[in-house]
Automatic annotation (TrEMBL):
Name this polypeptide is given: NAD(P)-binding protein
CDD domains with a match to the protein in the record: carb_red_sniffer_like_SDR_c
Highest taxon of the lineage: Eukaryota
Stored InterPro entries: NAD(P)-bd_dom_sf (IPR036291), SDR_enzymes (IPR052184), SDR_fam (IPR002347)
Organism whose genome encodes this protein: Serendipita vermifera MAFF 305830
Pfam families: adh_short
Length: 261
């Protein structure tokens, strides 16, 4: 039994975290979303007595402080596990095809994907330090693993990749800083996950993965294609569960190692 805050719970992987975690009535799950009313996929889960929607924008200090106060009030000043799942993926455009303006525009993702989680950690550290598990998990991406980039020869999404690499660096630095206080930090990649069903509008056409599969299959013969959010989250939750202080500061996949697919 534990208390969790899932940041970015309106759709995709974050929504699946809330769904799977709250299936255990012993857990208390805070679903952090920018807009509770418009989070239509989350709404049905709010009837579960152990799910609490919390309005939270990672880049807004007023919102973060109000969210931390609300969680503290409902959960006696503590939180066991913080899951920093929220993030933007950007256009994925190649550098060569981007104008100066587009590069600058994409760069704003650093504010959302790097500064956002860092501010969120700052807001919730007092609650985590009172929790029984004291775990802070950043949902990162295999894109931040340089060997993986070179293996799959992917030059796309450089800014998104940079945000994941920077977030991982923060997680490792914080792990060192907070080791004595017993707070565990870890970055985990959820694998390749098809979140199309909860996009607006939904994207259900699986054929969009065909070119990617063609490229990845020869490199990773065992790779069977994207995971569902539920499959990914089950695996990530197992990794979180097994994570101890000995793992603090590391970056692993949903397999609990450096197998990214
Ligand atoms: N899907 C994959 O294959 C994959 C692979 C590797 C890593 N990841 C990582 O996994 C995480 C979740 O991915 P996903 O595919 O589920 O993404 P998604 O479907 O696009 O959902 C992103 C979530 O982040 C929220 N969000 C964005 N900025 C926010 C902010 N400033 N404050 C609060 N919430 C914010 C969004 O909320 P709104 O509804 O308000 O926009 C939404 O709930 C991301 O960090 C992504 O980089 C995904």
């Amino acid at each position: 039994m534990a208390s969790y805050l899932v940041v970015g719970a309106s759709r995709g992987i974050g929504l699946a975290f809330v769904k799977q975690l709250s299936a255990n009535p012993q857990n208390k799950v805070f679903a952090g979303v920018r807009n509770v009313e418009s989070s239509i996929h989350l709404q049905p889960l709010l009837s579960r007595p152990n799910v609490h929607a919390v309005k939270l924008d990672m880049t807004n200090l007023v919102s973060l402080e109000a969210a931390a106060e609300e969680v503290a009030r409902i959960n006696n000043g503590k939180l066991d596990i913080l899951i920093l799942n929220a993030g933007l993926t950007g256009s994925g455009k190649l550098f060569n095809d981007s104008t100066y303006d587009e590069i600058i525009e994409e760069h704003s993702m650093l504010t959302n994907n790097v500064l956002g989680p860092v501010l969120t950690i700052k807001a919730f550290l007092p609650l985590i330090s009172q929790g029984s598990q004291k775990k802070i998990i950043a949902v990162s991406s295999a894109n931040a693993d340089t060997e993986f980039i070179l293996t799959i020869e992917s030059g796309m999404g450089a800014t998104y990749t940079a945000t994941n690499a920077a977030l991982n660096a923060y997680i490792t630095k914080f792990s060192v800083q907070y080791r004595q206080e017993g707070i565990i930090f870890r970055s985990i990649c959820p694998g390749l996950v098809d979140t199309g069903a909860t996009q607006d509008p939904p994207i259900l056409d699986q054929s969009r993965y065909e070119p990617m599969m063609k490229k990845l299959k020869p490199l990773f013969p065992d790779f069977k294609g994207p995971l569902t959010p539920e499959q990914s989250v089950d695996m990530v939750l197992e990794v979180i569960d097994k994570t101890t202080m000995a793992d603090s500061g590391t970056f692993v996949s949903h397999n609990g190692n450096k197998e990214w697919l």
